[in-house]
Amino acid sequence: MSQEPSARVEGPVLNRRQEQLVALVRQQGYAEVDGLATQFEVTQQTIRRDLALLCEAGLLRRYHGGVSLPSSVENVAYTTRKSLLAEQKRRIAIELARHIPDQASLFINLGTTNEDVAAALMQHQGLRVITNNLNVAVMMSANPSFEVIVAGGMVRARDQGVTGQPTIDLVRQFTVDFGIIGISGIEPDGTLLDFDFQEVRVAQAIVEHSRQVFLAADASKLGRNALCRLGPVSLVDDWFTDRAPPKALAEVLTSAGTRVHVAA
């Protein structure tokens, strides 16, 4: 069986079979080695190598005889997420940035996709940015026409995100044109999920204090388990993603009035 072209999506390089394997487990919740080898028409040894790589990257969890989804209480490491689906995130960021005018005010919260959004906004002029993401703050402060306000609170060592009650209090002092949020999981009924309760509370405050809410999330978030509920997708005015949602979710989005923008 010929090897499919590879794409750089995280620390290791995943080929198309490995990407499809992750998508299959996310859809089914669990898969056995024997069944995967048959389905993908490769040897069990090849599948086991694939699974070892995917589990090491934190994308799957290994059990005796098979694999399941990662923990619903712990996210993939920041360094892995930073390069996961990097090209898709970059395209999403560029598409979202097209919908932000110069001289706008905005919140930008945590997440690697939002850091790409910040990079895509660097050629804008006169933005006023309030963020609890220190990576975003450092990046955007390099544009002398921007005014960048950093929320106070507890700094997370793993990703330089700031959370806690002081963060929420700062957010509540403003009402901005655009609130740009990320998410860890989207259920089939449109429920938005994340791993960190404190991060969810900040995101909820951002939603409440934004005239328009933009969600930046690639299609890998669909069906992904996470512990904390942020709220229904109806909170989001526009969702920027890399792939059209499945039919059932598309109907939910239409009913909720959420516009979907698929990055070219």
Written description of the protein model:
- The N terminus is likely disordered.
- The two termini are 31 Å apart.
- The longest helix has 13 residues.
- Helix 6 packs parallel to helix 7.
- The chain contains 10 helices and 17 strands.
- The protein has 264 residues and is of the alpha/beta class.
- The strands form 5 sheets. The chain has a 7-stranded parallel β-sheet with strand order 8-7-6-11-14-16-17, with helices on both faces. The chain has a 3-stranded antiparallel β-sheet with strand order 3-5-4.
The secondary-structure element order is: EEHEHHEEHHEHEHEEEHEEEHEEEHE
How are strands sequenced across the largest beta sheet?
Answer: 8-7-6-11-14-16-17
**Rg (CA only):** 19 Å
- DSSP helix fraction: 25-40%
**Inertia-based shape:** elongated
Total beta strand runs: 17
Q: Mean pLDDT score, rounded?
A: 87
Number of helices: 10
Supply the helix-strand structural class: alpha/beta
Query: In percent, how much strand structure appears in the residues?
Result: 15-25%
Largest sheet: 7 strands, parallel
Give unreliable regions as ranges: 1-11
